[in-house]
Every structure is written in C-alpha cells, then in structure tokens.
Amino acid sequence: MDLTYLIVDQWGAFVGKHSERIQVRLKDTLLQEAPLLTLNAIFITSRGVSISADAITACSEAGIPIHFIRSSGYVSASIYSAGLVGTIQTRRAQIEALSDQRGICLAKAFAAGKIFNQAALLRYMAKYRKQTDQDAFRELQWSAGEILDHLIELERLDGPNIEALRFQILSIEGRAAEKYWNAVRQVVNVPPDWNGRVGRGAQDPFNSALNYAYGILYTQVERAIILAGLDPYAGFLHADRAGKPSLVLDLIEEFRAPAADRVIFAMANRNTRFEQDQDLRLTAETRRTIAEGVLERLEKPERYGRKKMLLRHIIQQQARHMATFLRQERDAYTPFCVKW
Questions:
Q1: In degrees, to the nearest 5, what angle opens at C-alpha 36 toward C-alphas 32 and 38?
Q2: What CA–CA distances, in Å, run from 139 to 149, 172, 182, 231?
Q3: What does the alpha-carbon distance between residue 315 and residue 159 come to, in Å, rounded to a whole number?
Q4: Is pLDDT above 90 for 223?
Q5: Using CA atoms, how far apart are residues 107 and 163, in angstroms rounded to an integer?
Q6: Does the structure show a pLDDT above 90 at 200?
Q7: What DSSP character marks residue 85?
Q8: Helix axes 205-227, 311-326, angle to 10 degrees
C-alpha cells in the first residue's frame, strides 16, 4: 500500500523527488517513498534533515504541506503553496467578526465542543468499566456530568463582543478541564507522581506525549484553516499575539479529546513507555509511535451529521463551516461533538 504520510526522523536523511514520487534517502539507502498522487503530508521531525528544491516545488504544486516539528511537539514551520493564502473576502469577514456577535458565537462554540468531547471521552472510558470496575464507572459518569454542567454556564454568557467575554469563557473552559484531568488521573495509567496537565515546557513523559500528539493534530487543523481561506493568526477564543496562531488554537479545542487524548490514553493503558533521552526529550522512536497513532486516528470514521466521515475530513469541514458562517452564508457554527 502506498504511504499517505512521510515521517522523516533520521539525522542525515535527504528528501528528494524522483519521477512522480517523493523519496527519503540516507546516503545510498532508500528509506521511504510515496507517490505524489497519494501523499497527504510530510513531517520532518529531526534535525539534520535536508530537502531539495524540486521536492518542495512538487509538493507545493500538488497541495502537499511539509511540516517541521520539534521534539516538544512545537510546529516551527510549515510550507504550503503560495496560492492557498490568496483569499480576501473570508479574511475580511474574519477580522470584522471580532467586533460583533459572530466572534462570541465562535468562541463559545469552540469551548463548548472541547467541554462536550472531554465529557464524551470520560463516558467512553466508563462504558468499558461498567462490568469490571463499578466504582470507576460511577466516578467517570459523575465527572462527565459535572463537566457538562459548565455548558449551561457558557450558554448564559452575553456581551457586546468577544473582547468583553473572553476571560469568562476561558475561565469556564479551565474549570471544566480541571475536572477532566482529575478524572483522567483515576483511570489512565499515568505515573504515580504525575502532577497534572502541563503544556509547553513539560518535562515529564506523559505531558510530553500529549504535547507531541497535539503538535501532530495542530498541523492538520492549520492546513484545514488555510484551505478554508482563513487567517490562522486571527482567533476569537485565544487573544491575538505576535506569532501566535490563535485561530488554530481555537479550532483544535474541539478535536483534542477525540483525536489526540484518546490515542495517548490508550497507549498509556497498554503500558507503552514514553521514552525520553538524557535531555528529557521524547526519543525519536516514541515520537514516531505517537505521530503514527494520531495520523491513524485521523483516518478513522466518525459520525458527522447524518453520515460517517474520516476525522481528517471532519476537521476540514468544520473549517469550511467556520468560513461560511463568518461570511454570513450560514446562520450558525456548530462544534464537532463525538457520538460514542
């Protein structure tokens, strides 16, 4: 079967184009190759990798993004076709929405999607403990209910624009997340001394694994936003800051639990070791395992409206719905909510 993703993680590897295929070589040894026709993305996750101008040009013309990801999961660069960012009408609408109710609707929807899907994942994990661990089943169901209570609080918020409500929305999201991670600690095989969720800069293996999974997911969300004609740096729930891709951080919220958390929790409960090197960075083998797990998850179908669709395609659809809502061609934006 032809590869749809290339993960390049070997020091000294060279990415080049041969005929209509992208090849990864280490000196004279062919490591991987994939036809341009079926390739979805290239992930360069190691230092010391070089890539030819022909390969970059061919990928750009074929609409194949090239992502450069650090060992922490931070996406340091992505290469897209220049033509993809040439949309004006959608970007004007996106900026204007910061001053009216559209910005509030989107920010509340992103937070609601995250809260709903966190509760859904807890209920999903509860379902498999109903017969074997009644205490855990009840605890997870209770926590999921408490998390969903925050949706009522979110719905009641009202104000003139997103600037007036951002702090309150983030506060609600944060309190729901605290309950979520406390419940996760009860049923996921985290280290006994795990001190809770830490984002960028985390040095413990479990948080590092989550951050790396979010980094892989980030690339898919960013691609969907760009293809929808939106500006990745003009967000609603997350405030503007130079170099901060706020809209990517907004849209990724509704996909964290179903696309990344579920993968890492399953790996932890299978006793997969998130190996680190002496500098507390995830090893190349661990990073590859996580990347493959998230990318495989994105190829799984989920219920979306009245039909089933690959999770990767749902991300794209949500970005397009956001764009049409901002252009006022759609009355509302509804977050993606998993049905497990």
A1: 90
A2: 16, 21, 11, 41
A3: 29
A4: yes
A5: 10
A6: no
A7: G
A8: 50
Give yes or no for residue 86 having a pLDDT over 60: no
Q: Helices then strands (H, E): number in the chain?
A: 11, 10
Q: What does the pLDDT look like over 321-338, one tens digit per residue?
A: 999 999 999 999 999 999
Distance between CA atoms of residues 214 and 73, nearest Å: 7
Cα distance between residue 220 and residue 41, in whole Å: 9
234: closest CA among 72, 80, 102, 79?
A: 102
H or E element: which one contains 139? Answer: helix 134-156
User: Based on the number of CB atoms within 10 Å of its own CB, is 82 exposed (0-12), middle (13-18) or buried (19 or more)?
Assistant: exposed
Question: Three-class SS of residue 257?
Answer: helix
According to DSSP, residue 82 is labeled: G
CA atoms within 13 Å, Cβ hemisphere of 174: 9
Evaluated on CA atoms 156, 161, 167, 172, the torsion sign reads: positive
* DSSP states of 7-61: EE-STT-EEEEETTEEEEEETTEEEEEEETTT--EEEE-SSS-EE-HHHHHHHHH
Q: Give the H or E element holding residue 164.
A: helix 162-187
Confidence band (pLDDT; 50, 70, 90) for 81? confident
Residue-wise pLDDT tens digits, 147-182: 999 999 999 999 999 999 999 999 999 999 999 999
